[in-house]
Design a protein that fits this description.
This protein is an alpha+beta fold. It is about 55% helix and about 10% strand.
Length: about 210
């Protein structure tokens, strides 16, 4: 059985979404970070920093959301599911994954850290305008390569679209401005039934403790 350890409104949702897109059976284990469950001895054995998501699949334990999603698509996807069948197409997906994590998400996470994630004494509100500027700069770089029509790689939905749509949703939640074309793209991709199923699975796991 595949087990996903996660927490609502975190990067865990990306992994649950990928699992649902692939039609895989999995257990979702809610890790109550607010109550310190991430720092328990048992969980630290899974993730040395006490963070989520973590995936267990047999003898394999993985952290880092993009790496987990990439593994799932590689191991369990049929040809063309979430990853293109050809090497060049997979390289393009990887290119976008690295861009999304390293350029687009980074300034959003900086804002989150200095608004609520870090201990109060470590927050520096003065960095927030710079982080917002960095995000808009990365968004402009995205716009020079993708107009919001179709898909990031090839002619169908891939992991690149999954991570981009999730990251753009974070941006909307942080009240960042999106160009109309990317806003429409985000709404189109996040309307996929697999995401709704993943979000429901996450809510149910949190409600049941």
């Amino acid at each position: 059985m595949i087990t996903l350890y996660g927490f609502p409104k975190s990067r865990s949702l990306r992994v649950a979404w990928a699992l649902e897109e692939l039609g895989l059976e999995y257990a979702y284990r809610h890790v109550d970070l607010g109550r310190g469950e991430g720092q328990s001895e048992a969980f630290l054995a899974r993730h040395p920093d006490g963070k989520v998501p973590v995936l267990e699949d047999g003898e394999l334990t993985l952290f880092e959301s993009a790496a987990i999603c990439r593994y799932l698509a590689e191991r369990y996807g049929e040809s063309g599911d979430l990853l293109p069948a050809d090497v060049e197409g997979r390289a393009r997906v990887d290119q976008w994954l690295f861009f999304i994590i390293g350029e687009l998400e980074q300034p959003l996470w900086t804002q989150a850290k200095h608004k609520f994630a870090l201990p109060g004494e470590q927050r520096v509100p003065a960095v927030l305008p710079t982080a917002a500027w960095e995000f808009q700069r990365a968004l402009a770089a995205l716009g020079r390569r993708f107009d919001g029509e179709g898909w990031l790689v090839g002619d169908h939905f891939t992991l690149a679209d999954l991570l981009l749509a999730h990251t753009l949703t974070w941006a909307v939640q942080f009240k960042m401005r999106l160009p109309p074309a990317l806003s429409a793209y985000r709404e189109r991709v996040t309307a996929r039934p697999a995401l709704a199923r993943a979000a429901a699975r996450e809510r149910d796991a949190a409600a049941s403790g």
